[in-house]
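User: Structure please.
Assistant: Input sequence and predicted structure:
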Amino acid sequence: MSLIAAVVMAMSGAGQAAGDAPAEDLQLVCYGGAQKTTSQVNSGFEWDADQHKYVPKMRVETGKDSFDTAINVSIHGERGTIKLPKSLVPPINGGASAEGWPIEDLIVGHNQIRGKFRLNALNQPTLAIDRRSGVMTIEGLIKFSGRCDADEGHRRF
């Protein structure tokens, strides 16, 4: 029995000596500018040259809304989640858990973190975090560009 235990201990020590790194555990808070598509229904009156009078008119106008916000990213080994502010969540969404939306196809590299998350069937933004500069970008129907800092959970005051 002691021979088996010695072999198991030697194998586990050899794996660490060969350079196996422990799993990443990151808590990031990212501050920056966001942009989302908006739509607005406008109604009023418009001159109709054929009828020679004002007629009621309704139209839907789309545009972009830009604002500053913060986004939280949590990475535990090969799993990650992203928490978005309510202002970036579309009205029709898949619903996030208390931890946020899961990050799919997560790649945690030495210099970059990449993945995507699904807000709904049509809105699946991708995210990229440069680990050297701390810059995070989100591209999709919502857009975000900002700088991330490690969140150690310490109170500031």
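The first strand starts at residue 25 and ends at 48.
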